[in-house]
Specification:
Elements: H1 4-11, E1 19-27, E2 33-42
Antiparallel strand pairs: 1-2
């Protein structure tokens, strides 16, 4: 887990700029966790789309 200063540097923004945070848990057909992901993006330029086929 990164701290706020490191996040700001990675996202090339200022500490305190609004961010979008997405927590994703993907599960197998039996319900077991296959993936956990936390994603961050600048709210001013963030786009997110999900397609499930």
């Amino acid at each position: 887990m990164t701290d706020e200063k490191e996040q700001s540097a990675l996202l090339d923004c200022q500490n305190g700029d609004p961010l979008v945070k997405i927590n994703r848990i993907a599960r197998t057909h039996t319900g077991d966790v296959a993936e956990y992901r936390e994603s961050y993006g600048l709210a001013s330029s963030f786009r997110y789309q999900v397609e499930i086929n």
